[in-house]
Amino acid sequence: MHRATAMLLLLATVSLPQTKEAPATPPLKNVKEIQIMPTVINNPEKIKNPDAAALVEKGLRKAVLANEFQVVESAPVKVRISLDEFSGGSFAARFIVGFGAGRGTVDCRVQILNEDGKEIASTRVRVRGNMTWGAYQGNTTQAKQAVNKFEQTLMDQIEKWK
Fold first, then answer.
1. CATH architecture of 32-86+105-126+142-161
2. Domains of the chain: which residue ranges?
3. Alpha-carbon distances of 101 from 94, 95, 135, rounded to whole Å
4. What is the chain's mean pLDDT, rounded?
5. Which uninterrupted H or E stretch holds 124?
6. Burial of 136: CB neighbours in 10 Å, binned 0-12, 13-18, 19+
7. Dihedral sign (CA 108, 39, 59, 156)
8. Over 50: is that where the pLDDT of 18 sits?
9. Which residue from 21, 46, 106, 136 puts its CA 20 to 30 A from 84's CA?
C-alpha cells in the first residue's frame, strides 16, 4: 500500500508541468536619469526629528548618485521615500533595559514610480542604531548611526534594481 502511494506521488510530481518564470526585468535597467520626489511622512507621531524628511531624502540622493544615476528635475522614473518612523531612540531604554532596546530607528518604504506616479517597485527598509556602547550614546548619535546604515542599505537596494 505504501509503495503504491509513493509511486502515485512520484508519477504526479513527474507529470506536473514544469513552469519556470523568467526573471522580471529590474526596474532601473537602462535608466540613466532619476527624479527624486519629496519624502512622504505616513505617521507624524513616530517622526521624532523635525529634519527627518530632509535627512532620508539626502540619503536617497547619495544612494542614487553612488549608483551612477543622474538626478534631474523631471524624469520618467521617479523615486521617493515613504517614511514610517525616524527616531534617535530612548537613552533610558538603552541604559536600563539594554539588549538593543531604545536604539535609533529609520523605518520606511523606498518606491520607484513611473511617469504616471504608479509604483513599479518598492521595498521596506528598516535599520537601527548600533548596540555596541549604545547605552552610553545620546539620541543624536543613535540617529546618525541609523541614518548611515540607512544610506548603505539604500545603495545596496538600488544596485539590486539596476
1. 2-Layer Sandwich (3.30)
2. 32-86+105-126+142-161
3. 5, 9, 9
4. 75
5. strand 119-128
6. exposed
7. positive
8. no
9. 136
Mean pLDDT of 1-29: 51
CA angle 154, 157, 158 (to 5 degrees): 85
Q: pTM score, two decimals? A: 0.69
Q: Which residues contact 112 (CB under 8 A, 6 or more apart)?
A: 27, 28, 77, 78, 79, 119, 120, 121, 122, 161
Which residues are bridge partners to 36 per DSSP? Answer: 79
Q: How far apart are CA 71 and CA 61, in angstroms?
A: 8
Closest residue by Cα to residue 126 from 93, 99, 150: 150
Dihedral of CA atoms 144, 103, 122, 72 in degrees, nearest 10, equals -10
